[in-house]
């Protein structure tokens, strides 16, 4: 795929202050398509910011190459690369007005005054700051500063817009609003966005694809739904969303489905095989919201689900859901979120209860020793 | 009911007043005595006169040869001119040097960085008299003839440190992602310096420059060692006059210097307040 950005075997190590070497990027390869919203997601220190800074030109790679629109850019300094960055704390120039901040890249390139005026005006309108051009940066709210930073980066018409956790400083409501706006903006402009975040929810909401990074390598690169439903590794399953991961062994394989047995002896039938063979260890992923009550009564087909019974050890009400933790014999504690609708009720601690797992809600992750 | 006297408050207000008295009364006295017409004992008020000012500015006065101490205003003017020359050149050079080092230490990673930083603090810690002697030995042993140029070099060595410290403080307040943002938006290194770094550290640079100017104008100890015979600065000249007896013109010269410093400081403060 000839994308707008291609990263080939990028590696980068840092000297740790306390001695030793940190491998921030370990042979990372990645292609970003035209007009794609790609998120680099991972815990702090996973290498996501290093990767972004390597693209913008603020970090040199130890090895590997980066191609922007087919051109290798390793020899290009940051100011010559056709990408722009929205910084985490915006990095707006405090000595310039909103207008001059946005105009900066055009002024530096020697664009004609009339054109600057027009493009800056259009851009301020696009981000909803029309008429605020004469303000000082210090007079703006966090959300407004965010928009100025966005306008300042976009006015240069970059081939790729890089966003380094730009929403982390905003409060929750504003953050949700900006997530929508960013997504819409990206769609309208048709520019590829590379968005760095450690917030998995944010990543799921906004991205076309998400690259989950850990320890300097890409763990998985997929569409949000795929990543959530069929994580390729235990790390991804744990990092994205809530999860129950139960140890299991494959007991039989039949075409594309297989049966596994849990540590307490429960057999779960008809799981997607996911490349596993008979006798392979695996992790069974069950999302808490996929556990349901009373499944057996309303759907008598036994093959459609499995029962998990145990004692309620934690129980609380969280508005849309009841959260339960079930202590089951021979299994780690199982967490469940039950939709709080009519007919569901609060479970008391110590109560015996059964929950059902629809068989299509089960995902197998190859366990230790299994082929990856 | 009787109001209780708070000894603590009394002590603090006495302390506060004494503080002001010791700082400002000497300055006030010099100003007042510069208008005293008593030519013999300037501590005894005899009447108001502008004569001392007339003398230092070279206007004819009614004072006779006996009471007049200034041998020639030429020497005085020469000293003022020397001081201004030294201060202006020193300020320009040490501002550029100090700011450059401050930027280099703050922005780049290099070997022995902390050593360089410590080196920049050295001239501030070193006693002036040691620095003066050291410079004198250096100039003499390397065959520099003493003159204005040695004063300028000498002043630059320690004033660069002052500028370095003032500018460093300002840089540490500055977000370094601003420079990255500028590069990201297409500005090369020089453009970034001109459009972002310099405007943001300007108050520090101006502050450092003013400090350098005032210290250079004011320095006696170091200058005393490294000035040549014909290259006397104003403080060295005044010191020379004092050695031959306290003369009333000194008060007038001091007052003029005071007004001059006050103007520079006011301009500086005004410019700083405008920046914010």
UniProtKB/TrEMBL annotation, chain A:
| Keywords recorded for this protein, A-Z | ATP-binding, Cell membrane, Membrane, Nucleotide-binding, Translocase, Transport
InterPro entries the UniProt entry points to: AAA+_ATPase (IPR003593), ABC_SmlMolc_Importer (IPR050093), ABC_transporter-like_ATP-bd (IPR003439), ABC_transporter-like_CS (IPR017871), Mo/tungstate-bd_C_term_dom (IPR008995), P-loop_NTPase (IPR027417), PotA-like (IPR005893), Transp-assoc_OB_typ2 (IPR013611)
**Keyword Nucleus recorded:** no
User: Has the keyword Repeat been applied to this entry?
Assistant: no
Its catalytic activity? Answer: ATP + H2O + polyamine-[polyamine-binding protein]Side 1 = ADP + phosphate + polyamineSide 2 + [polyamine-binding protein]Side 1
Which GO molecular-function terms appear in the entry?
A: ABC-type polyamine transporter activity; ATP binding; ATP hydrolysis activity
Q: Which GO terms describe its cellular component?
A: ATP-binding cassette (ABC) transporter complex
Single GO biological process annotation from the record: putrescine transport
Domain ABC transporter as annotated: residue spans = 5-240
Question: Cross-referenced Pfam families, in alphabetical order?
Answer: ABC_tran, TOBE_2
Q: What is its EC number?
A: 7.6.2.11
Listed under subunit, the entry gives:
The complex is composed of two ATP-binding proteins (PotA), two transmembrane proteins (PotB and PotC) and a solute-binding protein (PotD).
The entry's family comment says: Belongs to the ABC transporter superfamily. Spermidine/putrescine importer (TC 3.A.1.11.1) family.
**Per its database record, what is this protein's job?**
Part of the ABC transporter complex PotABCD involved in spermidine/putrescine import. Responsible for energy coupling to the transport system.
| Name recorded for this polypeptide | Spermidine/putrescine import ATP-binding protein PotA
What is the phylogenetic placement of the source species in the record?
Bacteria, Pseudomonadati, Pseudomonadota, Alphaproteobacteria, Hyphomicrobiales
TrEMBL record, chain B:
* Species annotation: Roseibium aggregatum (strain ATCC 25650 / DSM 13394 / JCM 20685 / NBRC 16684 / NCIMB 2208 / IAM 12614 / B1)
Report the GO terms under cellular component.
plasma membrane
Q: Please give the start and end residues of each transmembrane region.
A: 12-35, 84-106, 118-140, 146-167, 196-215, 221-240, 252-271
Q: Mind telling me which PANTHER family this protein's record contains?
A: PUTRESCINE TRANSPORT SYSTEM PERMEASE PROTEIN POTI
Write the protein's name.
Spermidine/putrescine transport system permease protein potC
Per UniProt, which keywords does this protein have? Answer: Cell membrane, Membrane, Transmembrane, Transmembrane helix, Transport
Q: Which residues form the ABC transmembrane type-1 domain?
A: 80-268
Family per similarity comment: Belongs to the binding-protein-dependent transport system permease family. CysTW subfamily.
